[in-house]
């Protein structure tokens, strides 16, 4: 006679041999259901009318707009004249910050020469805050080492860190 352990093992083994497709279908069904729920039934972000008004005043003709909320700040990713931009607004609809992806060729010459002295320019972002202008530049010093530089409008390096 078989022990209870052996009988349980045989029962599990028979079930797993005879019923694997049904088990896999149920698992896939729940994964698909979860995927649909996350994609389509996700709660949408409610934007205050002041934020929408502020956005429309600054950027009337944009494409591919995606909103998110970071604490008390509303962030929007969009394309304006084929250029990717990220804008941040407060609850009153005031523009706090605008980040614009730039090509290295469109950098001011002083900023470009300072960044090129550190390595090959890979990515550039112009940051406009209420009363100041910054440039976030990623340079490749060698094939492995990349450095993020934060420069002000006067070509002074404010921050430098290895990525």
Protein architecture, described:
It is a single chain. The protein is α+β, with helices and mostly antiparallel strands and 163 residues long. It contains four helices and eight strands, in the order H-H-H-E-E-E-E-H-E-E-E-E. It has helices at residues 4-18, 20-40, 49-58, 109-116; strands at 63-70, 73-80, 83-89, 95-102, 120-129, 133-140, 146-152, 157-162. The radius of gyration is 27 Å and the shape is elongated. It starts with a helix and ends with a strand.
Rg over C-alpha atoms, rounded to the nearest angstrom: 27 Å
Order of helices and strands: HHHEEEEHEEEE
Strand order of the largest sheet: 1-2-3-4-5-6-7-8
Report the uncertain regions. 6-10, 13-28
Shape: elongated
Helix residue percentage: 25-40%
Largest sheet: 8 strands, antiparallel
Percent in strands: 35-45%
Write down how many β-strands occur, each being a DSSP E stretch of 2 or more residues: 8
Text of the CATH class of the largest domain = Alpha Beta
Global mean pLDDT: 78
What structural class do helix, strand and pairing data support? Answer: alpha+beta
Question: Might you state the CATH topology name of the largest domain?
Answer: Nuclear Transport Factor 2, Chain: A
Q: What oligomeric arrangement do these chains adopt?
A: single chain
**CATH architecture field of the largest domain:** Roll
The total number of structural domains is 3
**What distance lies between the first and last C-alpha atoms, to the nearest angstrom?**
65 Å
**DSSP helical segment count:** 4
């Amino acid at each position: 006679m078989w022990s209870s352990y052996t009988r349980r093992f045989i029962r599990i083994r028979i079930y797993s041999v005879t019923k694997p497709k049904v088990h896999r279908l149920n698992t896939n069904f729940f994964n698909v259901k979860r995927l649909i729920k996350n994609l389509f039934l996700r709660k949408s972000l409610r934007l205050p009318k002041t934020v929408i008004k502020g956005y429309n005043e600054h950027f009337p003709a944009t494409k591919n707009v995606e909103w998110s909320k970071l604490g008390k700040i509303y962030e929007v990713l969009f394309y304006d004249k084929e250029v990717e931009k990220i804008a941040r607004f407060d609850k009153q609809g005031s523009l706090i910050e605008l980040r614009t992806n730039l090509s290295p060729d469109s950098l001011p010459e002083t900023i470009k020469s300072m960044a090129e002295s550190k390595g090959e320019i890979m990515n550039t972002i112009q940051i406009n805050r209420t009363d100041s202008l910054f440039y976030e530049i990623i340079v490749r010093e060698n094939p492995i080492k990349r450095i993020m530089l934060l420069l002000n409008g006067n070509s002074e390096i404010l921050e430098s860190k290895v990525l």
